[in-house]
Amino acid sequence: MIYIDPPTWPGHGHLWSHLVSDVSYEELHAFAARIGVPPRAFERDHYDLPAHRYADAVRAGAAEVSSREVVVLLTRAGLRRRKRRDGGALPGGCEGTP
User: What is the C-alpha to C-alpha distance for residues 81 and 92, in angstroms, rounded to an integer?
Assistant: First the structure.
């Protein structure tokens, strides 16, 4: 299943949502491609989606969840990749806060 949190994350003059899967990265990449999200929007374990694209994702079938639920879903699925202090990604499945 694909999930999206509300566009509340500021960056580059916009608000952003996180688009995630609780099944696989393949499912997530296929969904993102289907709605026209560029590959460069993928970061570690999610796609960053600008606020103006939120409704597109929901219309295409993404379930609306809280930002906290996004972390729980990724962690339970073993797909969570936390950001390292040096900017890289830790191995998948690591728990922690966003």
Answer: 5
DSSP, collapsed to helix, strand or coil, labels residue 77 as helix
pLDDT in tens, 34-93: 999 999 999 999 999 999 999 999 999 999 999 999 999 999 999 998 876 655 544 443
Question: What sections of the chain are H helices per DSSP?
Answer: 25-34, 54-59, 67-77
The reply to whether the predicted model has a pTM over 0.85 is no
Q: Compute the distance between CA of residue 43 and CA of residue 46 in angstroms, rounded to an integer.
A: 6
Rounded Cα distance between 49 and 86, Å, is 24
Q: Are 46 and 20 in contact (CB under 8 A)?
A: yes
